[in-house]
Amino acid sequence: MSTIFKKIIDKKIDADIVYENDNILAFKDVNPISPIHILIIPKKEIPTLNDIAVSDKELLGEMFIIAQKIAKKLNINKNGYRVVFNCNKDGGQTVHHIHMHLLGGRSFSWPPG
Ligand code: DGP
Description:
The chain is of the alpha+beta class.
């Protein structure tokens, strides 16, 4: 089933894009929970973390490398940041296209609520 993120990938709806290559898109979250809140998504449609395959391991690794680059560019690398993947209902996932939340610009408590 196609999601709102697929429409963003296909440029059918607008997003504030901060990074794009052939495999990955990164854009600002429409409902930020911190001064920096970027969503990093694969262009490949993968609904949840339960659906990733061994053949996706390079793609998942690339998402982390891109998070690292964006964090450096936005100057949150030294103070630090948090990356989060939510999975299904108990994980708080609302959009069923895997996405990494890159959160920064403030400190976060642990454990999360
Ligand atoms: P999650 O709860 O982990 O599934 O996070 C989904 C995030 O996606 C949520 O923080 C809000 C964001 N989001 C939902 N729809 C849109 C949209 O149309 N544009 C943008 N930029 N972000 C969206």
